[in-house]
Amino acid sequence: MLAALGEAIGAAGINLDGFGCMDMEGRGVCHLLVEDGEGARKALADAGFQVSEPREVLVVQAADRPGALGALARRLTNAGVNLEFAYVSAGSRLVLGLDDLARGRRSAL
Predict the structure, then answer these.
(1) Rounded Cα distance, 62 and 18, in Å
(2) What's the rounded Cα separation, in Å, for the pair 42 and 98?
């Protein structure tokens, strides 16, 4: 699956800035961080992948020190923002899928 995904995105000229993939009940599920969400969606759908709509995420530069993740997560929790998924992308950036992106942006910064 990952080879076909990478080939489809690459053939469309789209760079992967980050991604997270996991097995969920026997299905491979991936989130891709790209500049062109619609282009990536089309390239993957054309390659036979089941694709959901592009989703906006919060991307923050991750501090490279002990406790940084906990401090960020605590600010989000205290603001009542729920984390739906998270992964680290290229350049030590933290990608966060949140239930309230606007409040998450205000809380994370």
Answers:
(1) 14
(2) 24
* Burial class for 26, CB neighbours closer than 10 Å (0-12, 13-18, 19+): exposed
C-beta of residue 18 within 8 angstroms of C-beta of residue 90: yes
CA dihedral in degrees (38, 45, 89, 27; nearest 10)?
140
Q: How far apart are CA 46 and CA 4, in angstroms?
A: 12
Q: What is the pTM of this model?
A: 0.84
Q: Which two tokens stand for residue 30?
A: 């991936």
Complete domains list, the chain, with CATH: 2-46 (no CATH), 58-108 (3.30.70.260)
Express each pLDDT in 58-86 by its tens digit. 999 988 899 988 999 999 999 999 999 99
Q: Answer whether 76's CB lies under 8 Å from 58's CB.
A: no
